Amino acid sequence: GQTPAVDGIFGVETQNEVEDFQTLKNLAEDGIVGTETWQALIVTVKQGDSGPAVRAVQQLLKSKFGFNTVKVDGIFGPVTAQAVKDFQALKGIASDGIVGPVTWQKLINK
Predict the structure, then answer these.
(1) Which of 11, 45, 52, 106 is 20 to 30 A from 94, alpha carbon to alpha carbon?
(2) pTM tops 0.70
C-alpha cells in the first residue's frame, strides 16, 4: 500500500515509506530493508491471483527477462503461469508456477 516513486533510488521518500511499513507490520522502525522487512514484504502469488504483486512479477518477467508474451495487467492467468514456470526452469529452481521467496529472489537479482 506504500507509494514511493519507482525510480531505482533509495531516497528519503523511500526510507519514510519503509519506516511506515515497518511500523504497520510491528517491525523495528529503522528504514532498512533487512531480513525481517523482506520477509514481511514477500507476497506469494500464483495462478488465479491478481493485484500489485502480480503486476510486479509480470513487469519483471517482461522488462527484465524478455518474456514478451506476458501482459502487465495484474492478473495471474495461464500465460503468466507458463512464463513463471519457464523462468523457474531457466534459473534451475522448482518449476511450479508459484512465485514465492526463492522465485522473487531470482526475479529481483540478476
Answers:
(1) 52
(2) yes
